[in-house]
Structure formats: C-alpha cells, structure tokens
C-alpha cells in the first residue's frame, strides 16, 4: 500500500512547522535577565568572608592574615627511617604490580 501524496505533504508540513518553531525559540539559550554575568562577578570585591576553620565572620584583613598563616606550615614531618623504607617498598610494589599484574606478597 503506497502512501498518498497528500499524506506525505502533511507529514512534511508538520515536520517543517516543528523545526521552524524549534529553531526560532532562542529564549532557551539565554540566561534569566536578573542573572549577573560572570565577568561582573569576577571583578566584585568580597567584603565579608568566613573562616575555613570555624566559620566565624572575618573582615578582609583578618581573612588575608588567616590565609597566609594556613599557607605556611609549621609542621615539618619527620618519619622514622624504618617507616620511610616501608613506604618506599610499598610504592615499589604498587609500581611493579601496575606493569606486570603480579601480586607480590610479603
């Protein structure tokens, strides 16, 4: 059974109407008008900040000082030589296992 020319024309008209309305609706791609652009938000200076440690509100000077203190570490890790050797051997075992697939049991 062959479809009639009229049925084919109707399907083509419906398809063209659908594609026309889909292509002309550009409002889906635009952000809402009340949304602040990212370029403007990047240039804004944040005047209130919270401590990453306990969440206390800080002014910009206190926040910068706290960030500087957190950046410099007073903790110098010293490990026992036996522990350092054990860590090295575990890393070596993991390295060998990745290339060979052989499990090395102690």
Describe the structure.
The protein is mainly α and 106 residues long. Among the domains are: 40-74, no CATH class; 76-106. 55% of the residues lie in helices and 4% in strands. The protein has 4 helices and 2 strands. The chain has helices at residues 5-24, 38-43, 60-71, 81-100; strands at residues 49-50, 57-58. It has a two-stranded antiparallel sheet. It is flat and about 90 Å long. The termini are far apart. The mean pLDDT is 78.
Quick recap of the structure?
This protein has helices at residues 5-24, 38-43, 60-71, 81-100; strands at 49-50, 57-58.
Alpha-beta classification: mainly alpha
Pick out the low-confidence regions.
none
Mean pLDDT: 78
The fraction of residues in strands falls at under 5%
Rg is 32 Å
Helix content: 40-55%
Total number of helices: 4
**Largest sheet features:** 2 strands, antiparallel
**In which order are the strands of the major sheet placed?**
1-2
Distance between the termini: 77 Å
**Number of E strands:** 2
Overall geometric form: flat
Q: What string, H for helix and E for strand, traces the elements in order? A: HHEEHH
Secondary structure elements and their pairing?
Layout: H1 5-24, H2 38-43, E1 49-50, E2 57-58, H3 60-71, H4 81-100
Antiparallel strand pairs: 1-2
């Amino acid at each position: 059974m062959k479809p009639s020319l009229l049925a084919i024309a109707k399907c083509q008209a419906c398809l063209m109407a659908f594609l026309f309305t889909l292509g002309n609706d550009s409002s889906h791609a635009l952000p809402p008008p009340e949304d602040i652009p990212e370029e403007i938000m990047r240039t804004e200076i944040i005047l209130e900040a919270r401590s990453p440690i306990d969440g206390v509100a800080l002014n910009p000077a206190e926040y910068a000082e706290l960030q500087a203190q957190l950046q410099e570490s007073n903790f110098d890790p010293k490990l026992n030589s036996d522990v350092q050797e054990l860590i090295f051997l575990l890393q070596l075992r993991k390295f060998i296992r990745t290339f060979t697939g052989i499990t090395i049991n102690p």
